[in-house]
TrEMBL record:
Subcellular localization, as worded in the UniProt entry: Membrane
Membrane topology qualifier: Multi-pass membrane protein
One example GO MF annotation: voltage-gated potassium channel activity
First-listed, main subcellular location of the protein, grouped into a coarse class: membrane
Protein name: Potassium channel tetramerisation-type BTB domain-containing protein
GO biological process, one term: protein homooligomerization
Length: 140
């Protein structure tokens, strides 16, 4: 599960912010960094802060809004699923990898703070089937 997921900034020093510093100025500083490196269980992904800020209420969107003095983060998890998560930030389309069960995929989405409503229509049949199967088990 996700108890092993931990955020580990490469540079763990925090920049101090004053109460008068607005969220806007923090976001401006963050977006001035052109890229963010995300390491998922040894597999490196590079993207821009602008891409991650497309969904500011998700884990990665919130992360790049923080006044961290770091542009690289490490997580333990499934890199294949993360590829789809990152594609979602880039394209707006969210697909479950074929070799991953929907329940596992949903757990990852929950960790990353991405709502199920973003799952693409082509994968939503699997989601509906998984929900029906879960309800059938509860009814027994």
């Amino acid at each position: 599960m996700f108890s092993t997921f931990q955020i580990k900034p490469v540079n763990q020093r925090l920049r101090s912010t004053t109460n008068s510093q607005s969220v806007h100025s923090i976001v401006e500083k963050v977006t001035s960094k052109s890229s963010v490196i995300i390491n998922i269980s040894g597999q490196r992904f590079v993207t821009s802060t602008t891409t991650l800020l497309k969904y500011p209420d998700t884990r990665l969107g919130k992360l790049v809004q923080q006044p961290l003095n770091a542009a690289a983060f490490t997580f333990e998890g499934d890199a294949e699923i993360f590829k789809e998560v990152l594609k979602f930030y880039i394209t707006g389309d969210l697909h479950c990898p074929k070799n991953v069960c929907m329940s596992d995929f949903k757990n990852h989405l929950e960790f990353w703070g991405i709502d199920e409503k973003y799952i693409s229509e082509c994968c939503s049949g699997e989601l509906a089937e998984e929900k029906r199967a879960g309800k059938a088990v509860q009814d027994v």
